Amino acid sequence: MTDKNEHRMANYMALKTAIINGEEALVKKLLANRPMLDIEKSYLLELANLNNNRRIIRLLEDLPVKEIDKDFKA
User: Fold this and answer.
1) pLDDT of residue 67
2) DSSP structure string for 37-52
3) Cβ-count burial of 10 within 10 angstroms (0-12 exposed, 13-18 middle, 19+ buried)?
4) Which residues contact 41 (CB under 8 A, 6 or more apart)?
5) Is 29 domain-assigned?
6) Is 12 left (phi over 0), alpha (psi -120 to 50) or beta?
7) What's residue 49's pLDDT?
8) pLDDT at 8 over 60
9) What pLDDT shows up at residue 73?
10) Where in the sequence is the domain holding 30, given as residue range(s)?
11) How many structural domains does the chain have?
12) Contact, 9 vs 36, CB < 8 A?
C-alpha cells in the first residue's frame, strides 16, 4: 500500500469515527469538499442517518461524487 493510499484510508476511518461521534466541525474539515466514490458516500450517509444528525447528513449530501476510472486495472 502506498503512502497516499494509507493516508486516504486513515482519513476515511477518521471520517467514519467523526460521523458516529457527531463531530460536525471535524467531518467538515475531513471532507474538505473532495469528491468520493458513490459507494463511500452512501455508506457514510447511512452512518449519519443512524445518528439523525441533519447537519452532517447535509454535508455528505452536498459532497461531489468521483467518477470511476473505467481504464483502471488492478
Assistant:
1) 82
2) -HHHHHHHHHHHHHHT
3) exposed
4) 60, 63, 65
5) yes
6) alpha
7) 97
8) yes
9) 66
10) 3-61
11) 1
12) no
**Residue 41 forms part of a structural domain:** yes
> pTM, whole model, 2 decimals?
0.80
**Count of H helices and E strands in the chain?**
4, 0
- Torsions phi, psi for 65 (to 5 deg): -95, 135
Amino acid at 65: V
Place of cell 473532495: 34
- Asked if pLDDT for residue 1 goes beyond 60, the answer is no
* pLDDT single digits (tens) 35-72: 999 999 999 999 999 999 999 999 999 999 988 777 66
* 47 vs 9: CA distance, rounded Å: 17
Residue type, 4: K
